[in-house]
Amino acid sequence: MGRQDNPGTHGSRPGASGNGARPGRPAVRKPARKPVGKPARKPVSPVYRRRRLFVGAALLLVIAIALGGFAAVASVLNAGQSPSGGGSAPSGQETGPAGAPETTASPSASPTGNGCEQNLVTVTASTDKPAYAAGENPLLSLKVTNGNKVPCEVNIGTSQMEFLVTSGSDRIFSSTDCQKDATELVKTIAPGQSETANFLWERNRSVEGCKLIEAKPGAGGAYYVFTARLATKTSPKAVFQLN
């Protein structure tokens, strides 16, 4: 006689349940997982905070010192430079008024001394008489006057002088044509004082190089012009007559 199965228990195990529990053991539930997040920061230590503040302050101090040193160097460099575009005269030189003519003198004839101005030293020419009789030789004079308020040293040697006689465009005589052994003579001229050099003209003609010339200047009331020169300074004309 065959075995009959119980339809209510076919295909199932005693104690089985949908949660996977084994028979005879209670069901165990796994705890729910917490969502994964960023780890919490640890509180900053007061000592670490003080160290960061100290380092920051030291860095700011170094930057301030560097900037201050750069500014000091820049100010020193700027102080050593002259302003751009300046038209000031170099040290030791003076500028005259605009448009004033320039006067240049030979170094050997230039007046020297503290405050001695060259343009205030003048040269004049004169004769001892306005007219001369036949056979009478004119005395020609060169006069140097110091118009400064201080003494001036002036070279009045024969190397700087010329006594020139002309008649119109005719060059009659020059003391430099036959001059020998020219000398230097530096004298100190007091303020307002003068020095005079004389030359006795023998009423003869001369040419450059001291060549022999037999012609004589005319007489009979002819007029002549005497001009004195000292270095580059030339006197006004002095007129005289030969009879």
What's the gyration radius in Å? Answer: 59 Å
CA(first)-CA(last) distance: 203 Å
Strand content: 15-25%
* Low-confidence spans: 1-21, 79-109
Number of strands: 11
Mean pLDDT across all amino acids? 74
Shape: rod-shaped
Main sheet overview: 6 strands, mixed
The helix/strand order is: HEEEEEEEEEEE
Class of secondary structure makeup? alpha+beta
Proportion of helical residues = 10-25%
| Multimer state | single chain
Structure in words:
By secondary structure, the protein is of the alpha+beta class. The chain contains one helix and eleven strands. The strands form three sheets. Strands 2, 5, 6, 9, 10 and 11 form a six-stranded mixed beta sheet that branches. It has a three-stranded antiparallel beta sheet with strand order 1-3-8, with no helix packed on it. A hairpin with a 2-residue loop joins β9 (222-230) and β10. The radius of gyration is 59 Å and the shape is rod-shaped. The chain has one helix at residues 46-79, and strands at 121-127, 131-132, 139-146, 152-155, 161-167, 170-174, 186-189, 194-200, 222-230, 233-234, 238-242.
State the main characteristics:
243 residues, alpha+beta, 6-stranded mixed sheet, 3-stranded antiparallel sheet, 1 helix, rod-shaped, disordered N terminus
